[in-house]
Task: structure prediction
Amino acid sequence: MHYQNYVNTMSQFVRCLFLVFLCLSISGCTPNSDKLDQAEQMMAQHPDSALKLLQTIHPAQFIHSSEKALYSLLLSQAYDRNEIYITSDSIITIATQFYGKENPDRAGSAWLYSSRCAKNRGNIETQAAALLRAQGFAELATNHKLRALIHCDKADMYKVQEQFDSCILQNKKGLQEFAKANDKFNVCLASITIGLQYSTVNIPDSSKHYLLYAEKIAKLINAKKLFSPIYKSLGNCEIHLNNYRKALEYYMKAPKTGNHIFDENQWYLISNIYMLMGKVDSAEYFIRKVKTPKNMNVGYYTLRKQICEKQKNTQQALFYANQLLLAKDSFYTHSLKTSFAGMERRFMYDKLNDQNNRLKIESARKTTIILIISLLVSIGIIGFMYWSLRIHKRKLEMERELNEKEIDLLQQATANNELLERQLEIVRQLNDKEKDLLQQATENNKLLQMKNDIQQQLLLFIEQYRLGAGKGNMDIQARIDDQNIRKQIILYIDCKYNNISERLYKEHLELQLNERDVYICCMLLAGFTSGMIAVILNLQLNSVNTLRGRLRKKLKIENNEKLPEALSKL
Result:
């Protein structure tokens, strides 16, 4: 009986506990979750209303960590969108600790706002580290606007370090990402920023291009707030082009924004242009309208010092020079001590190193598991195969020895065959060379014999011609000028000089070489002197020299070059 009462009591307690948990879960999921969703939807168009809605929620009402993280992220975003600069990172830290790679979009946004909190409190190194963490998550996400905001914040850090090329590059990347997200308002802002940076590095044409593009987008979306920075920036471009009147027109054209910081900056710009135009009184009139020079410390004090110097007010010039030094010291005190590009490379290296270490650990874990499984399987296989291996061990050794001997014999036979083939190839090459040499020697001997025969006949005929008298000379002359001897001389020269007689006819038709000219060329190549040619052709020596001179002209051979050598080169 007591046991039955105990069981009934416990069952009732469990039912009550279940109902309590159910009520708590229902109460925790309905009202505040709806408000968070509503605030997230309102954030883009109405950040002020989203902030008011979030301020009605008390963080202690959240049960789940995911709701707390989302609330802290949305609240930080709402403060930033409403230009409420929060220095403490206690709110956004909840989001950075909760979100990770499983939700890279919100993780990247959380670290982005964490970097802005660090920027608001002047901690530049923490800002850079948080921004690099945000970039790492943004690369895993598909949120183009998030990537664009990170690129623009990186550009601001490069600007502080005066690395203007990197600053312009990051702003261009941000412009591309804003364009992919179809965010025309931020496309316009990014174009203005790029135009300002080009103006800073004194490239007014590129600056003007981006600023006119920004003006076009601003008119398209009717963003009246953006006309003031656009016209001020266009005025800066005209200053670089030394067009001061046009710059003044742009400064005057800039509308009032209702924000005293922007409006006073306009007075400063107008004062500066009047100073450049040499109108010191007008410059002083407009610079006196600036009441809070905090956001333009260096430029403001520089301009006031220049005005005082022009007015020869030494005491005031020294005062503003001192203020200028203090402003510069304050600026460099809050600058990043190390290169942001170096920090980015170190961050990427650390990131890759962490990934590599995780991969090594995972690989080592998998390798260990595989080794354990392999070890167990191997033990089983070894136990099963041990007896079979002992039986077949001797047989395998014998087969291995036979195979090795057979392989050695095959390798030796292959080597012998290769050596024999090389020897046969060498013998064939020697035989071919020997045949070529014999054939060449035979042809040379034939040519030499032919030359000797021709020379002996000609010498014999010439000697007879010299010793003969009267009619006998005519007979000897006829024998010397015999067609058979002429053919032999031409044949000999053609064999030695690659058919030069035919080439003289065919390749030099325009020279109108006759048969005697070709014959004389052949005799000169055969080594005959002018005297011998005169005897053979029954001509006077002067006539032969004349013929040689004509040949030089026809063949365009210089006088300082020997005629036989020139003919041999044809």
Summary: The two ends are 138 Å apart (CA to CA). The CA atoms of residues 462 and 535 lie 7 Å apart.
